[in-house]
């Protein structure tokens, strides 16, 4: 009876309907991502772990399920390509200039070549088949050139970095995935030819590659033009999102008819929209980005489900280690070579390479794409190598980015007004020598003080310099309504009560928050909570001007040695 129950349970688990399965995938992936994020580990790692649990451990996601969900995987890949295209604007290329492209090609091709040679040798040693070995090496080399923008940029944001190294990192990660995609297209065509699944001649393979690239670009461009005209007639966010997703689905669906990868055409769609409508497209991409989390979560969980630890035989483990070693070496040496050739600052030459090691979405996407396009065993090897390496580099990579920017001395240089305010106390920015008025000063002498001072806020003090009230220019105008009485008035007679006060050691953030709550432009600063001796005045507008000036000064210093764009 127990045996029958176990068998029945196993049968139910193995035949979950897709809606229930997707519910588990999204819920589990979201929970896993959040859990890993708590430990400062990139979210994608959490999704991959959940995928391993649902696939290799509990067998809820089977290879047959993965094949059934291929259209969804293609759509997710298309969305990744679309979002890559959003960052490839014309101004990006004009801004980054020749130096960054030299470094980009050097580090990308460096990783490609070293990984291709290293992994090809391992496969050739095991199989003895030179064609298959080179085919695997080509594909893994192209995938190795990709860098994960999200994990890298998150570290830069977290540590508020600014300077030549940060500028170069941002430039490279913005373009690295596009380079990887182009390398992959060429590598995949060459690999197919070597495996006998492509064209027999080099000329035919080259023409096929050019045809696929031109066709993908033309498809993405035409669909981008269509979306551009559709968006001219809609303003509502829900309609914008519907048109954007429908055009993306069309691009992916049409790409699947001749069995070519959808990423390039989807990236071209994104590039077209980003450059045809640079201002409005930002809103379009933001809407798609808000729509995308469940898609990305499901994609990375399904990617994790590809991993089968039983197939991690010793030679595959060696291949994973060779892939990681060659990729790391290629990135570091290639970055150094490119930075040296382009005469980049010393910090870029020394530390750029270790900041370009994380891998995630595009690498995983290309690996899964290879799994669909090549022989089952060959595809699984590629997926296993890339997925395991990605898992490791998503943990180690961000830590190395942190080391690099710290060594370069760029941490904390991209400080904002809010960041600076949190580090200051009131005494750091207060006017320590405010113009004050004695309590027994006659009105006509008060007017003389007004004429010799630029202030509009005057604390009134007694003989012991204790504040007893406030006089403002706006408030004293009312005293002139009665000229006879005005002649006899003293400062203590016209002073208004102070609404609030602060002390020198009070955190500036707290003092400014109180000023906003009470709608105060100025606040007197007294010696202590129980001591009303006037020691300064906090001027809200002047504080903001000082903070902004200091932020600009620090950013100017950080940018002083930034790469000269040529």
Write up this protein.
- The chain has 566 residues and is mainly alpha-helical.
- The protein folds into two domains: 341 residues, Na+/H+ antiporter like fold (Up-down Bundle), CATH 1.20.1530.20; 133 residues, CBS-domain (Roll).
- The strands form two sheets. The protein has a three-stranded mixed β-sheet with strand order 1-2-3. Strands 4-5 form a two-stranded antiparallel ribbon.
- The N terminus and C terminus are likely disordered.
- Helix 5 runs parallel beside helix 12, helix 5 crosses helix 14 and helix 7 runs antiparallel to helix 17.
- The protein has 26 helices and five strands.
Strand content: 5-15%
CATH fold-type name of the largest domain: Na+/H+ antiporter like fold
So, CATH architecture of the largest domain?
Up-down Bundle
What's the CATH C level of the largest domain? Mainly Alpha
How many strands?
Answer: 5
In percent, how helical is the residue content? 55-70%
Structural class: mainly alpha
Biggest beta sheet attributes: 3 strands, mixed
**Domains (count):** 2
By DSSP (H or I, 4+ residues per run), the number of helices equals 26
Calculate the terminal CA-CA distance, rounded to whole Å: 77 Å
């Amino acid at each position: 009876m127990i045996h029958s129950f176990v068998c029945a349970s196993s049968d139910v688990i193995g035949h979950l309907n897709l809606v229930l399965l997707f519910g588990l995938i999204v819920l589990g992936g979201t929970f896993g991502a959040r859990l890993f994020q708590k430990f400062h580990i990139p979210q994608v790692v959490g999704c991959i772990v959940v995928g391993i649990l649902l696939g290799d451990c509990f067998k809820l996601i089977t290879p047959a399920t993965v094949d059934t969900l291929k259209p969804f995987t293609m759509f997710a890949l298309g969305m990744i390509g679309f979002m890559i295209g959003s960052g490839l604007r014309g101004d990006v290329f004009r801004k980054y200039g020749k130096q960054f492209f030299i470094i980009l090609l050097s580090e990308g091709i460096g990783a490609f070549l070293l990984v291709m040679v290293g992994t090809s040798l391992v496969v050739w040693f095991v199989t003895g088949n030179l064609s298959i070995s080179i085919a695997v090496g080509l594909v893994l080399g192209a995938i190795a050139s990709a860098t994960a923008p999200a994990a890298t940029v998150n570290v830069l944001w977290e540590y508020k970095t600014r300077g030549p190294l940060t500028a170069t990192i941002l430039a490279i990660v913005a373009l690295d995935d596009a380079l990887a995609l182009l390398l992959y297209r060429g590598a995949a065509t060459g690999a197919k030819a070597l495996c006998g699944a492509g064209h027999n001649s080099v000329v035919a393979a080259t023409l096929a590659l050019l045809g696929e690239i031109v066709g993908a670009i033309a498809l993405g461009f035409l669909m981008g033009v269509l979306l551009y005209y559709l968006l001219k007639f809609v303003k509502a966010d829900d309609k914008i999102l519907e048109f954007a997703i429908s055009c993306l689905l069309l691009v992916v669906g049409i790409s699947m008819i001749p069995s070519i990868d959808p990423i390039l055409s989807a990236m071209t769609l994104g590039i077209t929209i980003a450059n045809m409508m640079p201002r409005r497209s930002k809103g379009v991409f933001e809407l798609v980005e808000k729509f995308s989390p469940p898609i990305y979560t499901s994609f990375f969980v399904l990617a994790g489900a590809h991993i089968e630890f039983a197939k991690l035989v010793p030679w595959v483990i060696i291949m994973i280690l060779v892939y990681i070693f060659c990729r790391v070496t290629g990135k570091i040496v290639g970055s150094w070579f490119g930075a040296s050739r382009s005469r980049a600052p010393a910090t870029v030459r020394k530390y750029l390479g270790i900041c370009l090691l994380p891998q995630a979405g595009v690498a995983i996407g290309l690996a899964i794409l290879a799994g669909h396009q090549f022989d089952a065993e060959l595809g699984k090897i590629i997926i296993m190598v890339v997925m395991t390496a990605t898992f490791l580099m998503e943990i180690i990579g961000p830590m190395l980015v942190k080391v690099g920017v710290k060594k370069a001395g760029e941490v904390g240089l991209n400080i904002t007004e809010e960041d600076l305010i949190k580090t200051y106390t009131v005494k750091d920015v207060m006017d320590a020598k405010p113009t004050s008025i004695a309590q027994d000063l006659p009105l006509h002498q008060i007017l003389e003080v007004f004429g010799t001072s630029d202030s509009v806020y005057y604390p009134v003090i007694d003989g012991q310099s204790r504040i007893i009230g406030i006089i403002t220019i706006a408030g004293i105008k009312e005293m002139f309504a009665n000229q006879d009485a005005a002649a006899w008035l003293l400062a203590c007679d016209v002073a208004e009560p102070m609404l609030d006060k602060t002390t020198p050691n009070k955190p500036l953030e707290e003092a400014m928050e109180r000023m906003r709550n009470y709608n105060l432009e100025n606040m007197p600063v007294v010696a202590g909570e129980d001591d009303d001796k006037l020691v300064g005045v906090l001027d809200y507008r002047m504080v903001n001007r000082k903070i902004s000036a200091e932020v600009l000064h620090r950013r100017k210093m950080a940018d002083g040695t930034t790469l000269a764009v040529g």
